[in-house]
Amino acid sequence: MDEISLTATLHNHILGIMESDFLDNWTTQLRKGILELGVLAALRGRRLYGYDIVKRLGNIPGLVISEGTVYPILSRFKREGLVTTTLVESNEGPARKYYELTPLGRRELTRMRESWRAVRDGIDSLSEEST
Amino acid sequence: MIRLTPEAQVYLEDYLADVRSAVAGHQSVSPIDIEQDVREHVFAALEGAESPVTATQLAAVLDRLGPPAEWVADEPRSIWKYLADRLKPVGHRAVEGIKALPGEAYQAGRGLAARVRGMSHDWRLAYITLGLFVLGMIFPPLWIASYFVARADLSSARERGETLGARRWLVYPPLLIVSVVLFLALAAWPIAPAVRLSHEIPRALKTEVADIMHVSPKAVQPVAAVYLAIGAVSIWWAIASLLVLRWPGLPAVLFPPFGAKIRRIDATIVLLLSATVFVVWLSKVDTAWQVAQEVLRRL
Fold first, then answer.
1. For B4, which residue in chain A has the nearest alpha carbon?
2. Looking at the 3D structure of chain A, how many domains does it have?
3. Which residues of chain A does B67 touch, with a Cβ-Cβ cutoff of 8 Å?
4. Which residues on A lie below 8 Å from B46 (Cβ)?
5. Residue ranges making up the domain that contains A87
6. Torsion of the alpha carbons at A68, A71, A72 and A73, rounded to the nearest 10
């Protein structure tokens, strides 16, 4: 391999790493916000326990990489008064903690969904303009 | 009811310890809630598995949960918890040190480590605080470590809205010592520059200065030191009281948990007293001014 092609290969390799890091970082940030919306949306109109929420969110491709990330979000939502919990005894293991939305949580979900739709529509319209 | 093999049980407890450590100190979440959720998640995920569940089966569930350290990486965290976490490697090295001990000493150390491990998280932290404090009598830098762990213990209790209860007898000693030393240093530091300034009066001038001050030449330096110290301390205490009035949470941050008892009314009383002392001090300022002029003229 001559010097020029070696430099070009290295350059492409570095660019590839940078692009991959950028995409990873961007995806992580994007996923973080959406996951919070997903948790509230999963609880809309029903009462679920933690594992059930995780499994439902896990069905959305690419949303939940580490299942455990959902639990700090639930804990924070509880502290912020967006969700409330009820303990129900289980025969299989420890008592199950069921989560449900509070009126504040329902309002927050509505606001987040509106905001999400506005962003999504905005991005879609930009994409349509350019095609 | 799902049962775990002893190996799997240890594996789960270690993982939950990692969960507690990763989320501790993050003010927006409750470590107890998260641990409870994760335990429940594990048993729900293992539902239908053959009992007892092996460590390999459990590992698959824990792998999907992911490393706890990544769950709340961006959340704000208490500085004391952060420091306590940084001190964890010291604890691991201590355990390795115990393992390296010969015969009976090793057995005794192992017994002690097992007892500490068997305690609840809070009591473990409290005993570690006291242990570091006692060892600090041989190696004083450990007092600093003890102080950090004690503050982490206080933070944990506060997050859960609990009091320390009987644990306070284990946790308070390093907090008390550091608070007293810090309080004395903060309260009395102006005395040092005041005394140093009083030494600036040249020996040859002491007779003249003694006449101005209406004291004997021998008393010039001590009287000047006391006078300057009273002035400096009264100004400083007035400033400190104003700072506490502006930020009432300051004493609680500097001297936990004792500082939390200092209220605005206490700061107001100190402000009035120090202001009164300062006004009285000012009534003698003309004498001080004459002394200063005399010293400057002759220098």
1. A93
2. 1
3. 66
4. 93
5. 3-129
6. 110
Closest CA to B186 of B251, B263, B264, B278: B251
Calculate mean pLDDT across residues A30-57.
91
Using CA atoms, how far apart are residues B41 and B46, in angstroms rounded to an integer? 9
Burial B115-153 (b: 16+ CB within 10 A, else e): ebeeeebbebbbbbbbbbbebbeeeeebbebbbbbbbbb
Give the rounded distance of the alpha carbon of B34 from its chain centre.
26
Neighbours of B41 (CB within 10 A): 27
Q: What angle, 0 to 180 degrees and rounded to 10, lies between the N-to-C axes of helices A3-42 and A103-130?
A: 140
Q: Strand A83-88 vs strand A48-49: parallel, antiparallel, or unpaired?
A: unpaired
Phi first, then psi, for residue B26 (nearest 5°) are -80, 115
Question: Which residue type, as a one-letter code, is found at position A101?
Answer: L
Mutation target among A76, A77, A84, A97 for the B interface, most CBs of B within 10 A: A76
Task: Note the pLDDT tens digit of each residue in B171-206.
Answer: 888 888 888 988 999 999 999 988 888 887 777 677
Report residue A71 as tokens.
């639990």
The CATH number of residue A50's host domain is 1.10.10.10
* Rounded distance between C-alpha atoms, residue A101 and residue A37, angstroms: 12
Query: Which tens digit of pLDDT belongs to each residue from B200-259?
Result: 777 767 777 777 777 777 777 888 888 888 989 999 999 999 999 988 888 888 888 888
Chain mean position to CA B259: 12
DSSP per residue over B123-191, as a string? HHHHHHHHHHHHHTTTSTHHHHHHHHHHHHHHHHHHHTT---GGGHHHHHHHHHHHHHHHHHHHHHTTH
Q: What value of ipTM does the predicted structure carry?
A: 0.78
